[in-house]
Automatic annotation (TrEMBL):
Domain of life: Bacteria
Name of this protein: DUF6777 domain-containing protein
Residue span(s) of domain DUF6777: 90-250
InterPro entries reported in the protein's UniProt record: DUF6777
Keywords: Signal
Compositionally biased residues, Low complexity: 66-78
Length: 364
């Protein structure tokens, strides 16, 4: 079983990469895959896609599990004045990036497979956008894992038009059902069967088109990046009771279980976007009965002693460690030994003994 510390380091490493990496603007006009450029993906023109909307050029009918979709709030004529558009890179391996319902698939993978393979033209266009061969579609889809997004995410979407796939930039609403690969990357949008790819994020002004949903915030958009290595399972959040679920890759929920080593944070923790300090929140109140500033009385008080400016009592006599056999008892600092008979009282030189004594102490 993995340790909590190891899981924490893995999670924090993944989270640190998402916070510290800058989102680089891309000048290419197309989305490149293993099969080449599949269409135009204008980075400065982004379509907002509510979770139930099929969008332009759907490849198939929806295979997403029925869910209550929030009502869009209308077309966004411009960016809200109070928010700056920010796209946050986040690793697909971050626990809690995706959610779902225990033992229930977010998408019907078998129906998705049938709908695509029954139309050879669409199957060919889908395969080209996904970087595979058409005959590989059934195995490819079954290797993906059905989950739902828990944050608004920008992707490169692909619509079907005139026998080919055309790429465009889109922001998918949190709650959208997707199929993800072993590195946590969204690969298919279940509401339309469209293949998905990594986003092309542009610098500067971006035009958002489409329907804005309640809670949409242009400063809280994620760009999912592939995990460092292929995973065998995903840690997702159970939408029913806000608990952790470990879902095996390529499984539709039949093997869902509680993780042996759950993340060291709550499923509802906002790890993707640390909240800034709220001006309306008062600072932590001072304790009503502060502890006294005076030091506690010593457990073994001695005779009255004067103190220096730092509050430490001065010793009556200098003291030092005795050299000799290690088994001999080392005198306590408060002990003072009388001088040997016949020896004159010579003032001790504290500097030299202290250097030697400290050396002996650290050497031991």
């Amino acid at each position: 079983m993995r340790s909590q510390g190891r899981f924490r380091r893995t999670a924090l490493t993944a989270l640190s990469a998402g916070v510290l990496l800058a989102v680089a603007g891309c000048g290419q006009g197309g989305d490149r895959t293993a099969k080449g450029t599949t269409g135009t993906a204008e980075a400065k023109d982004v379509l907002l896609q509510p979770l139930a909307s099929p969008g332009p050029g759907p490849f198939t009918a929806s295979t997403a599990r029925a869910a209550d979709a929030p009502s869009p709030s209308g077309a966004p004529d411009g960016e809200p004045g109070s928010a700056t558009r920010t796209v946050h890179p986040v690793s697909g391996a971050v626990p809690g990036l995706y959610g779902g319902t225990r033992s229930v698939a977010a998408c019907d993978v078998e129906r998705q497979t049938t709908l695509l393979t029954d139309d050879k033209a669409k199957a060919g266009a889908f395969a080209e956008a996904a970087g595979i061969e058409a005959v590989q579609i059934p195995g490819y889809l079954r290797s993906l894992t059905p989950v739902v997004l828990r944050a608004d995410a920008q992707v490169t979407n692909h619509g079907y038009s005139a026998g080919s796939a055309t790429a465009f930039q889109a922001v998918l609403q949190a709650g959208t059902a997707v199929l993800v690969d072993s590195r946590g990357m969204p690969r298919v949008r279940c509401a339309c069967g469209n293949p998905l790819g990594p986003p092309v994020v542009a610098d500067g002004k971006v035009a958002h088109r489409g329907e804005r949903w309640p809670g949409y915030d242009p400063a809280r958009i994620v760009a999912v990046e592939p995990g460092v290595k292929a995973a065998t399972s995903l840690i997702i959040v159970n939408a029913d009771d806000n608990t952790w679920i470990e879902r095996a890759m390529g499984d539709s929920g039949g093997r869902d279980r509680d993780p042996d080593d759950p993340p060291p944070f709550e499923p509802d923790a906002d790890l993707l976007f640390p909240s800034p300090g709220r001006p309306s929140e008062p600072p932590d109140p001072a304790p009503s009965d502060p502890a006294p500033s005076e030091p506690e009385a010593p457990t073994d008080p001695g005779p009255d002693e004067s103190s220096d400016d730092f509050g430490d009592p001065l010793p009556e006599e200098p003291w030092e460690y005795e050299e000799g056999d290690p088994e001999e008892v080392v005198p306590e600092p408060t002990q003072v030994f009388p001088a040997e008979p016949g020896e004159p009282d010579v003032p001790a030189e504290p500097d030299a003994p202290m250097e030697a004594d400290l050396g002996d102490v650290f050497a031991g």
